[in-house]
Amino acid sequence: MARIVMKFGGTSVADLDRIKNVARRVKAEMDQGNEVAVVVSAMSGVTNQLVGYCQSLSPLFDAREYDAVVATGEQVTAGLTAIALQELGQDARSWQGWQVAVETDGEHGKARIESIDGEELIERMKIGQVPVMAGFQGIGPDNRVTTLGRGGSDTSAVALAAALKADRCDIYTDVDGVYTTDPRIVPNARKLSKITYEEMLELASVGAKVLQTRSVELAMKERVRVQVLSSFADIPGTMVVDEEEVLEKEIVAGIAYSRDEAKVTVRRVPDRPGIAAAVFVPLSEANINVDMIVQNVSADGTTDMTFTVGKTDMARALKTLEQAKADIGFSEIISDSNVAKLSVVGVGMRSHAGVASTMFKTLADRNINIQAITTSEIKVSVLVGGEYTELAVRALHTAYGLDA
Length: 404
Ligand code: ADP
Ligand code: ASP
Ligand code: MG
Known about the structure:
Largest sheet: 8 strands, mixed
Bound molecules: adenosine-5'-diphosphate, aspartic acid, magnesium ion
Distance between the termini: 37 Å
Shape: globular
Strand content: 25-35%
Number of strands: 20
Structural class: alpha/beta
Number of helices: 14
């Protein structure tokens, strides 16, 4: 007997037939004698629609009210999934974040889980009931609903698995595992049977949306065994594991892309000590994450500073910088949201040279201009024009010998 958390993403609960399919899968695990807790996302498209409603009313909407709106999607599917389970004769009960309780910090719109009280759910599981928890949501210190950032149900599931001391956290989605790159844009991407926590963490953080970054971070910290698998096929998925468990290590494990960032250039700032602080402190105080940064060589005592922020933060970033104009002293700000960040990731990079140069050469051969570069121990990222995303990812996939 095992204790399993089963998480179902948006496409897996997209309509009533799929919710019935989910219920059958959960019941099958119960029939094997396991204890199961379920975490569900909103039906696919619903969260986007709810976010759209908020944006239409106000581009700089109040984050507390945004959370009140977007958290509703998961509430619907939790209730429906419990009903579908009951229809199969399986005892089940839905749980909203505050009922569990999933306690978070107060960062509305991108809250972090601080604790989950698993006690009551464990009691229910012991008597054969299936708790179905609404993913993506929690309750903040202000006693209001919070949400965990897009894709956050993965994190709800891993956090619940840790709180319940589950043997496994199965993330059911619309692909049958983690691939060398997004199989939707590279049809000959290869499925990985295992991937290390570290590689998965880097891939997720640079745009591989198959798992939310925080869910991998948490799994790594809490030693939760995570499997990514399909809710539509009965085949094993990809296990996220420790490095020692991966025998044949590739230099490059995978390639990711993100079109979620926008480029901001602050033109002609004085090239003086403290200028970076003058630009970036106000942004961090506004809780805006800055990713890639490039500073041009100074010619006439002034320089251009280019960096990327999340597209959803762009309006706020521009406003924040305008407000700090007297302090910074720039001539103008230029923004470009038609950019893509491409990243290659692999633990083998620690011991192999030449990964970055292969990347630069491959893009040069395709005449693709690189606008910014960042690296970490196991990752190289470049920023290119958004129109090159697919071409570049395919070319890199081939260049690193990843094609199936
Ligand atoms: P869910 O709604 O189940 O949470 P997501 O859309 O969040 O599903 O994540 C699954 C999607 O992640 C896939 O449909 C795929 O397009 C995308 N994806 C991106 N990179 C990868 C990758 N390396 N391996 C598998 N899927 C990936
Ligand atoms: N429904 C939320 C979203 O679309 C959370 C999730 O699906 O994980 O971001
Ligand atoms: Mg997801």
